[in-house]
C-alpha cells in the first residue's frame, strides 16, 4: 500500500487504524498538500445502502464548516471497490493518546469537552448523530484546537446488523456506547450526550465509568452500574462538576441531558457561579484591607487625642487592630 497511488492521492505512510478503517498520510498530487486518507472496511463495498448513507452524512457534517469538526475533502472508491474518505491532516495527537498519561487538569478537560459539545450541537441541529464519540475520534491540534473526526462511519459499519454481536465484532470496545446503542436500538443526539459524558468522566478522573474484562461485563455495567461522582476519585475536581457529568449518564435517555446545548448551558452556569464567587472573595479582601487601613489610622492618633479620651481612648487603640479581622470573619 505504501507508495501506491489511488485516484490522485499518493500513499506515503500509515498513521494508524481501528475498527472503522486504516488511516494513511497521503499527498494530493494536484497541489502537493498532505491529507489524511482513510480506507473504510472492505466488506462495505457490496452494501450500497450503507455507502450512500455514509456519503450523505459525511457530506452534511463537512458542510457545517465548524471549527470543532474535521473537514472532509473527498469521498471515492479505489479500483478494488474499497471506499475511502480524504480529510484534513492535523498536526497533533488524539485525545486517546493524551489520556495515556492520565487524567487531565480540570480546566483542560472542561475546555476540550466544551469544544466537542459545541461541534456535536452544530451537527445535531442538522440532524446528524455521530454515534461513536470517544477519545480516539477527537484530534487535539498543536495550536490548541479540538476536532471531531469520523462522522457517519459508525452508522455505516453497523448498518443492517444491530445488536451485541455486531458491536463486538465491528465496533470494538463499547465502553463509550449508550445503553440504547448496545441494544441495537435507533439512536438520537442523546446517545452522543452519553458518550460525551463517558469521555468527560475519563478526562477528569483518568478512569472509565463503565468497564470490564469482556463485552458482557461492560454491557452489564453500562446498564446497571452507578458510577462514583468524579470528585470522589480526584480531590482536585470541584464537586459542582459532578452533576454536569452524571447528568449525561442517566440510563434512560428521557432522564439524560437532552442535548449538548444543555451541557454547554450547565457548564456556563458553573463558570458564572465560579466567577461570581471569585468576585465576592476579591470584594471581601478589599473591604478587609480598607478596614485594616482605618484601624492603622486610629492606631496612630496623637497622644493628646488619647489622653483626652481617657481609658475609653486606650480601649479604642488596642481594639482597633482587631476590627479588620472582625470584618473578615463576618464576610
Short description:
With 331 residues, the protein is α+β, with helices and mostly antiparallel strands. 49% of the residues lie in helices and 15% in strands.
Please name the defining characteristics of this protein.
single chain; 331 residues; alpha+beta; Transferase(Phosphotransferase), domain 1; 2 domains; six-stranded antiparallel sheet; 12 helices; 49% helix; globular; disordered C terminus
Task: Report on this structure.
49% of the residues lie in helices and 15% in strands. It folds into two domains: 5-258, Transferase(Phosphotransferase), domain 1; 281-330. The protein is globular. β5 (72-77) and β6 form a beta hairpin. The N and C termini lie far apart (70 Å). The chain has a six-stranded antiparallel beta sheet, covered by helices on one side. It has a three-stranded antiparallel beta sheet with strand order 7-8-9. The chain has helices at 48-62, 95-99, 106-124, 153-158, 164-170, 179-182, 189-205, 215-224, 230-233, 240-246, 260-299, 303-330; strands at 5-6, 9-18, 21-28, 34-39, 72-77, 83-88, 92-94, 138-141, 146-148. It has 331 residues and is α+β, with helices and mostly antiparallel strands. The model is unreliable at 157-172 and 296-331 (pLDDT under 50). α3 (106-124) runs antiparallel to α7 (189-205) and α3 runs antiparallel to α11. It is built from twelve helices and nine strands.
The CATH topology of the largest domain turns out to be Transferase(Phosphotransferase), domain 1
What spatial form do the alpha-carbon principal axes imply? globular
What is the alpha-carbon Rg in Å? 28 Å
Report low-confidence residues grouped into runs of 5 or more.
157-172, 296-331
- The CATH superfamily name of the largest domain is Transferase(Phosphotransferase) domain 1
Biggest β-sheet description: 6 strands, antiparallel
Q: What percent of the residues sit in helical stretches (DSSP H or I)? A: 40-55%
What is the β-strand count? 9
Q: Indicate how many domains the architecture comprises.
A: 2
Gap between N and C termini, in Å?
A: 70 Å
The neighbouring-strand order within the major sheet is 1-2-3-4-6-5
> Architecture of the largest domain, according to CATH?
Orthogonal Bundle
Strand content: 5-15%
Q: Secondary-structure element sequence?
A: EEEEHEEEHHEEHHHHHHHHH
Structural class: alpha+beta
Number of contiguous helices: 12
Global mean pLDDT: 79
Q: Regarding CATH, which class of the largest domain?
A: Mainly Alpha
Amino acid at each position: 500500500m505504501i507508495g501506491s497511488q489511488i485516484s490522485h492521492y499518493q500513499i506515503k505512510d500509515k498513521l494508524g487504524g481501528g475498527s472503522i478503517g486504516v488511516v494513511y498520510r497521503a499527498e494530493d498530487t494536484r497541489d502537493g498538500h498532505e491529507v489524511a486518507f482513510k480506507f473504510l472496511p472492505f466488506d462495505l463495498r457490496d452494501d450500497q445502502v450503507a455507502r450512500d448513507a455514509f456519503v450523505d452524512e459525511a457530506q452534511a457534517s463537512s458542510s457545517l464548516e465548524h471549527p470543532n469538526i474535521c473537514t472532509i475533502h473527498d469521498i471515492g472508491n479505489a479500483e478494488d471497490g474499497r471506499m475511502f474518505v480524504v480529510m484534513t491532516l492535523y498536526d497533533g495527537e488524539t485525545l486517546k493518546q493524551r489520556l495515556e498519561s492520565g487524567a487531565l487538569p480540570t480546566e483542560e478537560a472542561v475546555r476540550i469537552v466544551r469544544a466537542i459539545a459545541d461541534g456535536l450541537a452544530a451537527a445535531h441541529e442538522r440532524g446528524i448523530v455521530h454515534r461513536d464519540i470517544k477519545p480516539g475520534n477527537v484530534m487535539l491540534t498543536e495550536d490548541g484546537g479540538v476536532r471531531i473526526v469520523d462522522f457517519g462511519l459508525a452508522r455505516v459499519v453497523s448498518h443492517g446488523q444491530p445488536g451485541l454481536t455486531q458491536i463486538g465484532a465491528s465496533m470494538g470496545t463499547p465502553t463509550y456506547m449508550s445503553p440504547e446503542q448496545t441494544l441495537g436500538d435507533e439512536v438520537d443526539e442523546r446517545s452522543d450526550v452519553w458518550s460525551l459524558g463517558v469521555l468527560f468522566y475519563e478526562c477528569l478522573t483518568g478512569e472509565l465509568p463503565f468497564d470490564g474484562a469482556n463485552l458482557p461485563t461492560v454491557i452489564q455495567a453500562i446498564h446497571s452500574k452507578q458510577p462514583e461522582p468524579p470528585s470522589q476519585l480526584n480531590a482536585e475536581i470541584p464537586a459542582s462538576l459532578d452533576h454536569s457529568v452524571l447528568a449525561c449518564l442517566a440510563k434512560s435517555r428521557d432522564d439524560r441531558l437532552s442535548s449538548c446545548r444543555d451541557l454547554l448551558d450547565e457548564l456556563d452556569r458553573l463558570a458564572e457561579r465560579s466567577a461570581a464567587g471569585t468576585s465576592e472573595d476579591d470584594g471581601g479582601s478589599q473591604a478587609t484591607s480598607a478596614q485594616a487601613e482605618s484601624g492603622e489610622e486610629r492606631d496612630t492618633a496623637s497622644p493628646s487625642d488619647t489622653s483626652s479620651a481617657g481609658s475609653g481612648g486606650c480601649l479604642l487603640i488596642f481594639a482597633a487592630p482587631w476590627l479588620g479581622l472582625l470584618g473578615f470573619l463576618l464576610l
